[in-house]
Specification:
By secondary structure, this protein is mostly helical. The longest helix is centred in the N-terminal third of the chain and has 31 residues. The radius of gyration is 31 Å and the shape is flat.
Length: about 150
């Protein structure tokens, strides 16, 4: 099976024509996208380095007083251990929030293309929601959702 491309055959003379297509002869179609990529990469790196350099240049470089290294720079001395551990329930609620936040994103995107998915898309989303609801019931049954 041959795939005929206009670019490929532009190099060959057609009939009595001997003049090649100017854009293919100069090579603009090959190098133009490369220049765009290099230009955007250069602009991106330049922006990052100028931003970091400006932040370093404009920031204050004084050591400050003894409160500068404390967790809170309000000037109030801390009491107790400032690196105390949080309870496990905070992390579990955060993980559940992330899981259901991702579920909301999936359902929102699914709703946008609902008309194109037909019955298979509806069944797949019902299975997805059912698995997520089973996980909520499991967490509830284990007592994870009760605050202690």
């Amino acid at each position: 099976m041959r795939v005929r491309s206009e670019r490929f055959f532009a190099w060959f003379p057609r009939g009595r024509e001997t003049v090649r297509d100017e854009t293919v002869q100069r090579g603009d179609t090959v190098t133009t996208p490369l220049w765009y990529v290099l230009g955007f990469a250069f602009a991106g790196f330049t922006f990052v380095f100028i931003t970091v350099g400006a932040a370093w240049f404009l920031s204050h470089r004084t050591k400050g007083d003894r409160h500068k290294g404390l967790p809170y720079e309000s000037g109030i001395d801390t009491f107790g251990d400032t690196r105390g551990r949080f309870g496990l329930s905070f992390y579990l609620y955060a993980l559940l929030f992330v899981a259901f936040d991702i579920e909301v994103v999936f359902i929102a995107l699914w709703a946008l293309v609902f008309a194109d998915l037909l019955t298979g898309g509806l069944i797949a989303m019902l299975i997805f929601v059912m698995v997520m609801e089973i996980s909520v019931l499991y967490a509830w049954r284990k007592g994870i959702l009760t605050w202690k």
